[in-house]
Write a structure and sequence with these properties.
four-stranded antiparallel beta sheet; mainly beta
């Protein structure tokens, strides 16, 4: 029995690992939940890196929907990059992570606020939890970059 539990635990650790994972904080000895910290570089605006914190419940069929996001300029942002992005009000999905076998996903969407020349990154769950769709927002202003256009 001990060997089976050890094998299950090691499998959960291997499955939980990600190339994007930069941190893993245990929520306690008697819980199977951890806060995972992932980094994501915007595939088009490569000068932006987002860090996302979310709870993962090992050996559970569904992870909690809560997440937090923080995005910062970590490199050059050019006008050419901004010209390539979707400028509609709904923007682009730039990252997606499954949070359940029941079709719940966490998505990060990039939306451009042209008036304020700011990139907005919205992290959200695609499944309602306790009467709410969980979400978090971070912004990256273009002020001071090569992409900023004086109005």
């Amino acid at each position: 029995m001990k060997k089976l539990l050890l094998a299950i635990g090691l499998s959960a650790l291997i499955i939980g690992c990600s190339d994007n994972e930069v941190g893993d904080v245990s929520l306690g000895l008697f819980t199977m939940q951890d806060i995972k910290l992932d980094q994501m570089i915007d595939p088009i605006v490569t000068g932006v890196t987002c860090h996302v914190a979310s709870v993962e419940a090992n050996l559970s069929l569904s992870d909690p929907s809560d997440s937090s996001i923080s995005c910062r300029q970590t490199g050059e942002i050019t006008a050419e990059m901004i010209a390539q992005i979707d400028k509609s009000k709904s923007g682009d999905v730039v990252f997606k992570k499954s949070k359940s076998i029941f079709f719940k996903n966490m998505k990060i969407r990039r939306i451009f606020d042209a008036k304020n020349q700011t990139l907005m990154y919205l992290s959200y769950s695609t499944k309602e939890t306790e009467g709410s769709f969980k979400h978090s927002l971070s912004t990256v202003p273009l002020w001071g970059t090569k992409a900023y256009i004086a109005m």
